[in-house]
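The instructor's notes for this session suggest beginning with a concrete chain rather than abstract definitions. Hand out the sequence below and ask the class to guess, before any prediction is shown, which regions might be ordered.
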Amino acid sequence: MFTVYAISSIGKTYIYVGMTSNLEDRLNRHNSGYEKTTRPYHPFRLIYQKDFLTRALAREYEKFIKTTRGKRTIL
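After discussion, reveal the predicted structure:
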């Protein structure tokens, strides 16, 4: 099972979209500042998630969500 997720910075205007097989662990990594890409923007709150059976389907959807049109569908 793979999850496509979106998190929003609590203190700044920033939304990150990603994919993982372990959402709880991934959120902890973002919020602890472990991830270089999101470190300046933590802490985060989860604003969207959708599960997929395969990595390929999740990756395809993640690419869509990262587009302007895709972000409009989740916000």
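Then share the key points. The two ends are 24 Å apart (CA to CA). The chain has a mean pLDDT of 94.
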